Write the C-alpha cells for this entry.
Amino acid sequence: MKNTSDNTEGYAASQRAPQKPSRLTKLRESDLWFSFWSHPSAIFAAALLAFVTITAFLAPFITPQNPYDLGALELWNSEIPPIWDAQGQWPYLLGTDTQGRDILSAILYGSRISLIIGFASVILALSVGLALGLIAGYFGGWADNVIMRIGDVLLSMPFILIAILITAVASASLPTGLKDVLAAPILIFAIAVPSWVQYARTVRASAMVEAKKEYVQAAKLIRVKSWRIMLNHILPNCMTPIMVAATLNFGLAILSEATLSFLGVGMPPDQPSLGTLIRIGNQYLFSGLWWIVVFPSIQLCLIVLSVNMIGDWLRDALNPKLR
C-alpha cells in the first residue's frame, strides 16, 4: 500500500509541475513581439511585404496569363491602357505592353524573381561574411589581415562596378544557351560578392570582444574545439547587429538587382524582373504608354519601402539603449 501511495503522490506532483513553455509561447511573451504589435509602421510594413510576397508566389494561379510564355502572347492585345481607361479591356487590369504582355502578370512574376534573387544574395553574402568574420575576429593575426585587406579592396571599388564586371565576365565566358538559364545565379553571385564585407566587419568586431571574455577563455582551457566555441558561444552574441544589417541589405539587394537589370546586364527580356520591366517601359515613357513603366516602379518602391521600415523597427527594437 505504501508503494502505491508513493506512486500516486509522485504522479500527482508531476502533474502539478509547471511545463516548459514552447518556443511560440516564448515568442509571444518576448519584448520583441510586444514591440512589434505596439509599432504601427512595423505592422503596416509587415502586412504589405506579406501581401506582395504571397501574391508574387501565387502568380500562376491569380494572373490571366504567363508572361514568360512568349507563344501565348497576342500582339493584337498590345498597348491596351489600364481597365479604368475608356479603352481598357478585361482582364488586363493594368493594361498590356507592346508585345501583348499583361502588366499585372508581369509585375507579379517579376516580383517573385526580384524577391528570390534579393533573398538568395543576402543569404550567400551573410554566410560568407559570418564565416570570414568569425575567423578574422577569433584567430586574428595573418588570417585577420588577409580577410580584411580583401574586404578593403572590395570596398574601394563601387558596388555597381563590381557587379557589372562579374556579370560581364560570366556572360562572355558562358555559351549562348546558358546565359539566360544562369542569369539568376549570376546575379545572386554578383550582388553577394561585394556585400559580404559588411557582415564580416560587424562579426569581426563582436568576435574580437567576445574572444577575450572569461567564458571563452574557460572553453579554451578545457580544450573545446575552436569551431564549437565560434558557433556555440561567439556567434549567438553577434546576431543582433547582423539581423538588422541583413534586413536592411535585403532591400538594397532588390534595388541592386533592379539596377543591373535596368542597365541590361540582369535578367533577360523573356524572363523579366522588376528592373527589366522598368527598362523596357522606360523606352515608351514619352510615347504615351506610361503604365508600362509606372506600375513596376510602384511595385519596386513598395517592396523596398516595406523592407526598410521593418529594418528600422528591428534596429530600434534590438537596441538596448532605446528600451
